[in-house]
Amino acid sequence: MLKKKSTILIFLCAVAGIALGVGLLIYGCKIPVPAAEMNFWDVPEYVGGDAFNYMMEASIRGGEIAAATISRAIYICVGSVLALVSTSASVLALLKLSKEETKQAK
Asked: Could you give the C-alpha distances from 12 to 29, 31, 101, in angstroms and in order?
């Protein structure tokens, strides 16, 4: 009886892991990545020359794009791995439950 309860608990944790993995996957797909267009007039301070302002804006925009892309990739990868591992755990828990039920039926 105790084995059956622990197996059911493992199955419920696996289902929660699947839900969390799918949630992370969806959240990762919805993270916006900034556009690559630049406007060097948007720099808060004019620091002495249009070319220098353009270089500053390019480095800021590159950092924003890189950070958004990396966080998006991390959320998608972690979500998909968590969903796959949780799916495997749930299948194993269901197999274990079915074996226990067939043993009890005999």
From this structure: 26, 29, 18
pLDDT at 44: 63
| Measured torsion, CA atoms of residues 41, 45, 49, 50, in degrees rounded to the nearest 10 | -10
How much is the pLDDT for 1? Answer: 62
| Orientation angle between helical segments 50-105 and 2-30, nearest 10 degrees | 160
Whole-angstrom distance, CA of residue 47 vs CA of residue 71: 31
- Of 21, 28, 25, which is closest to residue 70 (Cα–Cα)? 28
Q: Band of the pLDDT at 67, cuts 50, 70, 90? A: very high
* Residues across the chain: 106
pLDDT at 45: 66
